[in-house]
Design brief:
single chain; alpha/beta; Rossmann fold; DNA polymerase, domain 1; 2 domains; 6-stranded parallel β-sheet
Length: 217
Amino acid sequence: MYQTVIFDLDGTLLNTIDDLAGAGNWVCRQNGWPTYSVEEFKTMVGHGIPNLVEKFSPAECRSPEKLAQTLEQFSAYYGEHNLDRTAPYDGIPELLANLRDRGITLAVYSNKAHEFSKTIVEHFFPGVFHLIRGKVPGVPVKPDPAGIHLVMADLAADPERTLFVGDSSVDIHTGHNAGLAACGVTWGFRSRESLIEAGADCLADTPAELEKRILQE
């Protein structure tokens, strides 16, 4: 049984894509740019909001100055609308409650900006997680392991008893780069095939199946 579980946020605990796409398309409309489908936004997310902003910005609008302006636009709008349609995936609240009851330490580590991460997680899962960490200045985004190492140190977690859980190849690589086992969940923004190709140690198709993976002796 794992003693510590670190979760990705977007596409793993919460379905946030409608609000992310809504904010991105609002920015696009404000600037007279083409908009994108929700499915297209699923391919853009996962590497942090600055990277998302760059991806939906037209090539001629990617100067450092323009990207900084666009990021400010996006962040202001998303900050006001990041709870509009975001919701936990079915079975996630029950999973987290069961793991807490078993005494497992729970954490969130996301490439989403830290303040957004804390606000959203604490809204949907108040008091559930022992630590919530998003993107902070000076710490590279996933799949670089630096942030995970800081989380592990803060939790005093044993790498051999810690599982990283996420929905993308970025998450699988993050776990492995930090020397952790990594489980891919198939209900998020990426395909089962991409998780297999990334070398996931295991896959879970439902939160109930993930719970069995975590609690297995």
